[in-house]
Structures are given as C-alpha cells and as structure tokens.
Amino acid sequence: MTSIKTTGFAGDTLEIIAFRLHDQEFCVKTTTIREIRGWAPSTPIPHSPPDVIGVMNLRGTVIPIIDLAHKLGMKSTEANERSAIVVAEVHSMVVGLVVDRVSDILTIRSEQIQPVPEVTTSFDKAYAEGIIAHENGMICFLNLSRMFKERDVEDMAA
C-alpha cells in the first residue's frame, strides 16, 4: 500500500464523517463539522450561484445551503426525508451541505489516505484530499477549504 504525506493531520489517526451523494461515498474531517441536521426546506435567494439552494435559519443565524453534488459536478441532489444537512465551518463561515445521507463517523490512519488517481475527471481534483480504501468501498476525502475558496465564501455571505 502506498502512503502519502498529508499535511494538516495531527497524529497518526483522523476522525472523518462519511456521507453519500448518489451512489458515491465522500468524507470530510469531523473538525470542520458543527452538526448534522435532518432535511428542512431552505429559502431560495434570487441570482445566487447554481450550487446555492438557498438559506436557512440556524438558531438565529442565516446560513447558505449548498447542493454539494452540484458543487462536485454531479447531478443535483433531489432532497427527501432521508437527506441530511451537514453544517460545516469553512473559512470562519458556517454553511449547510446537502447530502443524500450520512453513513458513518470513522477513525482512520493517515496512511490509509491515498492520492487521487490522475484519471479521475468527474470532479475537480483540487477538491479531494485523497481516496480512502475502506472495507465497504472507496471514500473520496474532500477538502472543504479548497472547495470553498475564501472569496467564494465571502460572496455567499453578501
């Protein structure tokens, strides 16, 4: 097994939250996650970027709700009662990410994260930290800081 040097990972283990978009498994570091909520409708915002579904009230704070599948270049998620909103903090701003469902919270070893193969074209490789080969299949490890550049987050807040 080839291991890679990963930056920003403290120690030998890392906690991740895994979720599904269509038939694919993705994950992010649990340290970026504030909470997981059940699906609730959001209020659309006129002329918002195509991946912004709308906004919702999170205990008195208005946060943007992002169609994560669309952001990754996939077909938009059709939200239903099994969908979830993963509330994350990116560049000091809170955003809600719509996912089909949350799968698991896992502890992985940093050497389990392998580089994204060069042939992957379904989404921008800059969004991925790597790929995790897990007993239940492959998990794409997303980097929210690179996915939502600081300027993009400022535009969502405006």
List keywords for this structure.
about 160 residues; mainly beta; five-stranded mixed sheet; 3 helices; about 45% strand; disordered N terminus; Chemotaxis protein CheW; CheW; CheW-like_dom_sf
Short description:
Pfam families: CheW. The chain has 158 residues and is mainly β.
How would you portray this structure in words?
With 158 residues, this protein is mainly beta. 10% of the residues lie in helices and 46% in strands. The protein is built from three helices and eleven strands; from the N terminus they run βββββαββββββαα. The chain has helices at residues 68-71, 144-147, 150-157, and strands spanning 13-21, 24-29, 33-38, 52-58, 61-67, 84-90, 93-99, 101-109, 113-114, 128-134, 137-142. It has a six-stranded mixed sheet with strand order 8-1-2-11-10-9. Strand 10 and strand 11 form a beta hairpin. The radius of gyration is 15 Å and the shape is globular. Residues 1-10 have low confidence and may be disordered. It comes from Shinella lacus. InterPro entries: CheW, CheW-like_dom_sf, CheW-lke_dom. It holds the Pfam family CheW.
